Amino acid sequence: MANADFVKGLEGVIAAESSICFIDGHAGRLTYRGIDIQDLAEHSTFEETCYFLLFGNLPKQAELDAFKAELAAGSVVPDEVMALVRSLPKETTPMDALRTAVSALGSYDPDALDNSDAANVRKAVRLIGQVTTLTTSFDRIRKGLDPIAPRQDYTVAENFLYTLHGEAPHPSSARVFDVCLILHADHELNASTFAGRVIASTFTNESGVSAVHAAATGAIGALAGPLHGGANQRVMEMLLKIGDLDAVDAFIDDLFANKKKVMGFGHRVYRTIDPRATVLRSFAKKLGEDTGNSKWFEMCEKIEKLVSAKTSKPIYPNVDFFSGAVFYSMNVPIDIFTPIFACSRISGWMAHTVEQLRNNRLIRPLADYQGLEKMEYMPMAER
Ligand SMILES: CC(C)(COP(=O)(O)OP(=O)(O)OC[C@H]1O[C@@H](n2cnc3c(N)ncnc32)[C@H](O)[C@@H]1OP(=O)(O)O)[C@@H](O)C(=O)NCCC(=O)NCCS
Questions:
Q1: Catalytic annotation on 5?
Q2: 323 lines ligand 1 (CB under 6 A)
Q3: Is any ligand 1 atom within 6 A of the Cβ of residue 261?
Q4: Are residues 200 and 74 in the same domain?
Q5: Domain CATH number, residue 289
Q6: Among 10, 221, 255, 313, which residue has the least CB neighbours within 10 Å?
Q7: Residue 158 sits in the same domain as residue 240
């Protein structure tokens, strides 16, 4: 009973106007506000990229310095929210813990009830810092360790590694991690960003509820799924399950024979290799060499060759394929991989939330109703 065209999964449907991110899926090109992702990966920092996504211009040095200071100051998580995180069962998945804690942050933010544009930006900056603090704190708490306060003189990347491992990160590791954050920062209307924009669109400036925290909470919920951000964890689990280079062929044969998906492959928009995967591939290779363990990288390359040989469909590695091996080489627990995605993507979510609220209209599509046209109500006794 369609009263408009229906496209399953909204494939190819344009659902928002935005100036933040552009993807040419056929050319394998990704830009943030016009700048190619490769250029940002080579020349920018995560802090500068956040500023650029949020404010729309590359910052001058003084602007960047002020932004970094605001980000570092905002990364502190209120004691009450930390107590909530401590109270969660140790088996809680890190993504569930993060979603719960980000929701709670909305009750303690000094601008909680202010949905003016300036307050939204202030809240966005705080959340960008706090998501990293929450991620690493939860990992330490569940291991029976005390959380480590982020250092005010550290970048987000440095603080992630420092507050996770408890020691000053090596500059080269911090830079690799910084670039990983840049690569994951935004990706147009991916499922979590769309979820965040839909939530933001229900708010007005007088809402009396923090639209920014509501959008971030919903976006984290959407990111957790294995078809989206949850794939990076599944890729590493797959590599560990395969275990050895010699076992790759049989494993991939089996997946294809049973029409199962290979995690870290395929994309709704790209019809060629995801440009982020190209950068991450080089990191996975380099880290493998540096740590004297190239096994994961070699397995990845073998899987890529096999998948390409087994299908004529445009199924190429996506951002999650090589990132697993990269994070694993940096001694990050596997179930923290998807929260890393959130530590970065929170910047894109916030840029999109602010953009949505600046020119808002409720996002409310239609359903193609497939049910009965008419049914009589049957009293309980007659059923
Ligand atoms: C990302 C993803 C959800 C995109 O989904 P989508 O645009 O809805 O595409 P579909 O799932 O409809 O896939 C289209 C076809 O390619 C196949 N395909 C897609 N991804 C595949 C994969 N990773 N492995 C094997 N086959 C795959 C599908 O089986 C389907 O084949 P069919 O037409 O014969 O049914 C999908 O590619 C996937 O599930 N990938 C694995 C999870 C992943 O890595 N997610 C992270 C995304 S960044």
A1: no
A2: no
A3: yes
A4: yes
A5: 1.10.230.10
A6: 313
A7: no
Which pLDDT does position 2 carry in this prediction? Answer: 59
Mean pLDDT of 5-26: 96
Residue 8 lies in a domain: no
| Any atom of ligand 1 within 6 Å of the Cβ of 223 | no
Specify whether 69 is located in the same domain as 180: yes
Size (the chain), residues: 383
**Of 206 and 186, the one with more pLDDT:** 186
State the distance from the centre of ligand 1 to the C-alpha of 316, rounded, in angstroms.
10
Domain limits for position 320 = 231-329
Q: Which residues contact 60 (CB under 8 A, 6 or more apart)?
A: none
Ligand 1 centre distance from Cα of residue 6 (Å):
20
- Indicate if 173 and 316 belong to the same structural domain: no
Place of tokens 């004297």: 292
Is 114 a known active-site residue? Answer: no
- Please state, in angstroms and rounded to a whole number, the distance separating the CA atoms of residues 344 and 353: 15
Please indicate, yes or no, whether residues 206 and 242 belong to a single structural domain of this protein: no
What pTM value is reported for the model? Answer: 0.96
As for how many domains the chain has, the answer is 2
Burial class (CB in 10 A: 0-12, 13-18, 19+), 163: buried
CA 265 to ligand 1 center in whole angstroms: 7
43-92 pLDDT, tens digit per residue, is 999 999 999 999 999 999 999 999 999 999 999 999 999 999 999 999 99
